[in-house]
Amino acid sequence: MQRTILFAKTYGILVVTVLLFVVLALTTEGFFTDRNMRNILDQQSGVLIAACFMTMAIIAGNFDISVGAVYVATPLVALLVENATGSIALGILAGLGAGAVMGAINGIAVTRLKVNSFIATLATSFVFFGTGYLVSDRSIMRPETDGWRDLARTRIFELTSATWIAIAVVILASVLLTRTRFGRNVYATGANREAARLAGVATDRVQMITFVLLAGAAALAGILGSSRAISAQPSDDFSFIFAVLTAVIVGGTSIAGGAGAIWRTVTAVFFLAFLSNGFNLHQIDPIWQRLIEGFVILIAVSIDAWSQRRSG
C-alpha cells in the first residue's frame, strides 16, 4: 500500500498526462498535429519559465503571489528603456533588473521583516501593479524597434525562440535544484527551517535567492510575452499567477514545503495545456474548463494534505 501511494504521488501526474494525450490524439481531430504541438509549446513557454522557479520557492517553504504583477510590470519597464534608448539589450536588462529588485523586496519582507510570504507578496502585488501603471502612464506601450518581436517569434528548427528559451530555463532550473548544494539547501530549508539553520544552512539567503530567481523568471516570461504581443499594458490581472500556481500544485509540489520536483511541474503544465486545448478543439464552454481545473487543484491539494498526515 505504501509503495502504491509513493508511486502515485511521484508518477501519477505523468501517467495521467500520457493517458490524456493518447485519448485526445485518438479522439480529437487537429490535436496531434505538428502545428498544434508547436502552438502549445509556444503558448506555455512563459508559464514553464515561471513555474520552474515557483516550484523552487514553494519547496523552500514560501508562496509568491506577486509573480503575476512582476509579469505585467517588468515588460513595461523594459519597453520604457527600449523606447528611450532604441536598444533592445538595454530594455531586456532593465526589465530583468526590475524583476530582480522586486524579488529582493519580497525576500526582504519575508526574511528580514518576518512577514508571512503569502501576505507579503500579496501586498507587493499591488505595489508592482501600481508601478506598471506609473511607468506606462496608464497606456499601452509598444516597442520602437522591429527586432523586439523577434525575441519570442524567431523560428529555429520550426520552434519559436520563446520555446527554446523555456527549454533552456527548465534544464537550468532542474540542474540547479537537483545537482547543486544550493538545491539541497532549498529542500532542507523547506523541510525544516530551524533544523537546516542549526546544520549550517543560511536559510534566509536561500529564501532570498529563490525570490530573486522567481521574479527574474517572471520578468523574462513577461518580456517574451510583450515580444509575442508586440506590446505591453498595465493591468491588475492575476491570471498568470493562477496558471503558474496551478501547474506547481497539480505537479505535486508540497504546499508545506520540502518536497517537489521541476519535472513534475513541467508535466503538469502540459497536462493543463492539453486539457485546455482539448476543450477548445471540442468547442466546449470555457466555464466547464474552469470547473474541472478547480476540481483538479482541489484533488491535488487534498492528496498532498492526506500524504502529509500519513507521513506525520
TrEMBL record:
Q: Which domain of life is it from?
A: Bacteria
A GO cellular component term found in this entry reads: plasma membrane
Note the InterPro entries from the entry: ABC_transp_permease
Keywords of the record, alphabetical order, are: Cell membrane, Membrane, Transmembrane, Transmembrane helix
Main location class: membrane
In Gene Ontology terms, what is one molecular function of this protein?
Answer: transmembrane transporter activity
The record's subcellular location field reads: Cell membrane
Q: How does it sit in the membrane?
A: Multi-pass membrane protein
Q: Where are its TM segments located?
A: 6-26, 47-72, 84-105, 117-136, 156-177, 206-226, 238-255
**What name is this protein filed under?**
ABC transporter permease
